[in-house]
Amino acid sequence: MTKLGTETAFEVLVKARDLEAKGKKIVHLEIGEPDFDTPSNIREAAKRAIDRGWTHYGPAPGLPELRKAIAEFIGRHIGMRVLPDQVVVTPGGKPIMFFAIFAVVDEGEEVIHPDPGFPIYESVINLVGAKPVPLPLKEEKGFRFDIDELERLITPKTRMLILNSPQNPTGGVLSKEDLGPIAELAVQHDVAVLSDEIYSRIIYDGFEHTSIATFPGMAERTIILDGFSKAFAMTGWRLGFGVMPAVVAEAVTQMQINATSCTASFTQLAGVEALTGPQKEVDSMVAEFHRRRDVIVDGLNAIRGIRCHKPLGAFYVFPNVTALRKPSRWLADYLLNEAGVAGLSGTAFGPHGEGYLRFSYANSVENIRIALSSMKAALARL
Ligand code: PLP
To answer: How far is CA 89 from the centre of its chain?
Structure first.
């Protein structure tokens, strides 16, 4: 158990709620979840499914109708032909990290993961007894990484590379041009890739999502993690999936049988509606995130001591706060207590997050403006 890490967002949420209970007003910019309601057609589909008796166990890898809908979605979304037996449906996208790393990586092997990056990757790598190898992301490269640095980190023990685009916590996006050379390295060194694409529909400025799985030689070595939490505002439904070679899907299914048996049946039917029904609400949620991104980036850049890169995807900003000359963790606490703004220290995502904070802009423009002006006032008192 001592090898397991955690997600600081949940800890900060508890601290913030504590302050709220004492009467303090807090703007929540710590947790990565859309503030929108799940679209009504999806909610109605779930209600109908419950009324029709979809309240029993289902097949471990997922209901056939959802696996088929996901395979077709992947075809449309990333342009890769996938069969339903390559899809495993899980309660949220997160179990795919756990299952895929357990299924593929042995004790003593190495896994390269983004730093700063989603903390659960490193946690699970440690749990299986493998060695986490951080791959530094560079602000000046739009929070992408140097391909030469990746090449240097690959050893004969490297079993897996974890990619996440668009990225949490930086909002960085890997382009088609970035992914080509990465794919070549993966093939050349026989490295598996866990490609976390959970934010792939939340992308701005005309950028197009590309999956590394579509490059030559990659379909057979890539596990795509995706899900419904972010794009469809369905965090509490717990519905996600992985797309992988069929043989890996069998192993992941075995893990699922041992861990959860299956994902809730009526939730899966809601997932079919999410993928096959109207997509208008997804588009309007993304348009609203885009508007908020511009407000928060401009507002942060107007605060002395903060420099904020404009992210191309997801709903996070990762401002550079080194000019304030305080440790990130101290600043996050200070802003919570003194400005009533809950955000995360960049170090919650790895040592390369020092000098940064992470704010989620999955909150209203009105609340974002309140947060910006109280942060400006509190930082002026430093
Ligand atoms: N991957 C990344 C990069 C995330 O940020 C998150 C959630 O915050 C997940 C996966 C997990 O999503 P889910 O809620 O579907 O388990």
So the answer is: 17
Cα 8 to middle of ligand 1, angstroms? 14
pLDDT of 119 above 90:
yes
Residue 272 lies in a domain: yes
298 in the same domain as 223: no
Ligand 1 centroid to 144 CA: how many Å? 19
Is there a contact between 184 and 218 (Cβ–Cβ < 8 Å)? Answer: no
Using the predicted structure, report yes or no on whether residue 9 has a pLDDT greater than 90.
no
- Structure-token pair, residue 281: 């609400």
- Is residue 208 pLDDT above 90, yes or no? yes
Domain count, the chain: 2
Instruction: Report CA(324)–ligand 1 centroid distance (Å).
Output: 30
Q: Which of 121, 168, 316 to mutate to test the pocket of ligand 1 (most atoms within 8 A of CB)?
A: 168
pLDDT digits over 275-301, tens only? 999 999 999 999 999 999 999 999 999
Residues 6+ apart with CB under 8 A from 337: 19
Alpha-carbon span 24 to 258, nearest angstrom: 44
CATH of the domain at 105: 3.40.640.10
Residues near ligand 1 with C-beta < 6 Å?
Answer: 32, 92-94, 118, 164, 168, 196, 198, 227, 229, 235, 240
Same domain, 211 and 327: no
Q: Are 70 and 96 in contact (CB under 8 A)?
A: no
User: Same domain, yes or no, for 184 and 215?
Assistant: yes
Length of the chain, in residues: 382
- Domain membership flag for residue 36: no
Structural domain boundaries enclosing 247: 45-276
Q: Ligand 1 mean position to 41 CA, how many Å?
A: 23
Ligand 1: residue whose CA is nearest its atom 7: 32
Choice between 6 and 274, residue whose per-residue pLDDT is larger? 274
